[in-house]
Structures are given as C-alpha cells and as structure tokens.
Amino acid sequence: MTAFSAIEPPRKVAAALIDSISRSPRKLLIDGQLVESLSGRTFATINPATGEELCQVAQGDAADIDRAVKAARRAFEDPAWRRMSANDRSMLLYRLADLIERDAHELAVLECLDNGKPASLTRLVEIEGSIKTFRYFAGWPTKFGGETLPVSPRGGAQILNYTTREPVGVAGLIVPWNYPMSMAAWKIAPAVAAGCAVVLKPAEQTPLTALRLGELALEAGFPAGIINVVTGFGEAGAALVEHPDVDKVAFTGSTEVGKAIVRAASGNLKKVSLELGGKSPQIVLPDADLNAAAASIAQGIFFNQGQTCTAGSRLYAHESCYDQLLDAIAAQAETFKIGNGLDEGVTFGPLISQEQWDRVSSYVDIGTSEGARLLYGGQRPADLNQGYFFQPTILGDAKADMRIVREEIFGPVLSALSWSDAEDLVTQANDSEFGLSAGVWTNDLKSAHRIAGAVKAGTVWVNCFNLVDPATPFGGFKQSGWGREHGRQAMELYSEVKSVWVNLT
User: Fold this and answer.
1) How far is Cα 135 from Cα 132, in angstroms, rounded to an integer?
2) Mind telling me the catalytic residues?
3) For 274-325, what is each residue's pLDDT tens digit?
4) What is the model's pTM?
5) Same domain, yes or no, for 362 and 260?
6) Which of the residues 52, 166, 318, 479 has an alpha carbon 20 to 30 A from that of 262?
7) Is the dihedral of CA 204, 208, 214, 215 positive or negative?
C-alpha cells in the first residue's frame, strides 16, 4: 500500500485505499508470503458507514490454519529465532512501531473504513495505542528472565537452583472487531517479545489492518513464519484453537465463545487466556462532581458506539442526583456528531453490522417492554439512511432483574438505576456474572478506596473511566476472563518457567 501524508483529508486517502484494495482479493500471510486460501474462496468485508463492500478477502479455513501453524512451528524452532539476542528481538519490535507510526494516517483511515470508528479517534486510540504497545513491549526482552533461589536440599548438598523463562511456543491469537488494530497489538507484542511465533486470526468483519500489520512486520525484519495472519470465519478460529501444535491460545471476545474455546483447547491442554464480556457499573455518590461524571460516563458508554467490553453500561446514581445526572448525560449525548467517520468533526460512527444493529435495537425494545423509560435516542438517526447507525440511548428507571441490566448489549445503551442504601450499593454493583471493570465517582477519599476494594472487577477507575496503558494489567474477574493483558503479567502468559538444579557438592 501507499503511505499517505498526515495532511491529506481522510476521504482522499480512503478513495486511494479503496482503489488499491478492491483490485484483487486480500491474501493470507503465511510463512512470509501473501497467499490465496487453499480453497480459493473469498468473502466481502463491508464498510459499516455505507453497507457497501470494500473488497474481497481470502477465506481461510482449517487447511490454511494448518499450514500457518506449521510455518509458525518451523520459524519458532529455527535456531536463528531461538538464539536471537534479546536486544535484537527488541529492535524488531521498535522497528515495527516506527513503521506503524510512519503509516499512521493510512492505517487510521483503513480502520475507519473497515470498522466504522471515526478516523480521528481511530488515529488517537487504535493507531497511537498500538505504537505505544509495541514500544512498551520492545523493552521487555532485555528485562524478562528468571532468578536464583535459595533452596534447602536433603543431606546438606550444595545446590545451585535457578529458573529460566522460556517462550511457550506457537501462540494462536484471536481478536475481535471492536478494536482490531489495538487488540492485535495487545497480543502480538508480548507474544513475540517473549520469543513465541504466532498465528493471528482477526474477526471476519475487520480483517484489513491485521493483514497490513503482518506486512509491516515483514518490512520490519521479522523472520518468515514468526507472524502469520489467517483471515476467515469461525471455522478458522476453531481450527486454530483445536490444533495440536498450538501451545497457547489468547482470545478476546464474548464470554459464550470463550467458554467454547476452553472446551476446545482441552485436547492437548494448551494454555488459554481470555478477555471476555463485561457489564461494567458506574457508581455515582451524592458528593460527586456531576458535570465531570456526566462527561466521562457518556464517553464510557458511547465511545466506539458502546462496542467496548469495558463500556460503563450500568449506572447507579444516588437518588438525590439521579435526575440531574441523567439530564447532564443526555446533554453530553446531544453533542456527539453522528456520521461517516471520514467526515470532519464526526465523533460517533455506525455499529459494525446489520446484525449488531438488530441486536441493539431489540434490547431497547426489551428494556421498554420490561418497564424501563426511554429518555434519549433509541433508534436510527433520521438523516442517515445508509449504514448501521444507531443513536446514543439512555434507559431510565431500570431494575436489577431487567435483561438490559444483566446482559451485555455491546451497543450505545445506558441502563440507569437509582440507589439510596449505601450498604446495598456494592452488592447491587457486584450482582453480575461479569467483573471486567467499574467506575466510582466521589470526592470522598475513604468512600473511593472502600468501594474500589469491594467491587469485584479487574479494573476500577475512580473519577475517570476507560484509561488503559500497556504498563498496567488489564483483565477480568468472574466470567470476564482468565489472565491479564499488558505489563509483566502478559509476558508471563506467553512463557514457561523452568527450574534448574545443579549439584555443586
């Protein structure tokens, strides 16, 4: 693809990209080569803002997964990779980050076309976040290792005991459509930093930036077979999970699919890490700064059209500020400019697909039929007939037993509940099968720490929301997943610990 200047308008860049990618089907990346699927089949990837086809993409299946895994195994076992110095592995990651930065504008527009998120936000969140992730993990190969341990063996022998950290092997990485580039970076970066070879299976809705990332990895100098990308549907993902020569699977997606992956991975007891669904509570105490809370709560549920696993979709507002807060959140929703993410000033794009639009719309109907009150939104914007656009939506007077409160909608729908009993508040917030994240809004330091400690969630934000960083662990409690992304914890997921005993007597 052609690199574009950051000063070129997104629509101009998009036109050139579409002209380029539509000429022939996008190919799989296996063993350092762009190849067609063995079946020759392709599928269309759709622009959510228009409902129109962007291009055809190779439809990989079990046979393609098999050759990608074999390529990854060869590359992983190759002495050139296994003996590569930690510093040289770091430099590969730094070079890849530099190439993403070089092509940032193009990648942002490509992601906007394929995912629908506004190009300005894609650049800020997806692309800049990916650069940051690769640069962060580039620092780990030279710092990630074992330790020497004091032991007390029988018989008084003099023993040297030390541990090493070794790469787990071939990692199968399956990422979702809501943050395609970011999620690919979150998984590829620690995996290759630890010394693994990977096969990436992107979501069928958003394959384009994953393929481009694979091409940039080759340009950066990664050996053939270390990073492979196979596009396709659930058949390809299932084959990757079940493959006997895959040592570890990392998945981000729905809890339902996560459970299926656990079952499928049992064949060779491969290691599994899962970042799954969420139904995150936003807890607002009566002393909170309501203006600040309203702005952040609106972003927390409406950013990326609510298609975020951490979306703050359950609002628990104290009865004394409930109405005022909902009015303020609705006022924030009113400021969003809904439209094609290629257009200047747009801050709210379409949902990913017609299927997702139907799902979100059905939940609004379910909520109102259960007795919730539609306070804002709830339908397609009147001036947008093409694409999968859905208004930011607020449902008030929700109750704990309603489906809109208990089930993950994965769309721009906020379910609001009021509370008065502080003793019952945390119990209500924890009354969920999920435990990915939570938000707490208060100016009382003691209350902030008490609630943060009591809420069962992997991340708790106090007077802020949806902040992430590659240095700090991210993941969930309960049915929101296993393991953690980011930080040293992510490196550990892609490694094995070996204990070595040496008799010095």
Assistant:
1) 5
2) 275
3) 999 999 999 999 999 999 999 999 999 999 999 999 999 999 999 999 999 9
4) 0.96
5) no
6) 166
7) positive
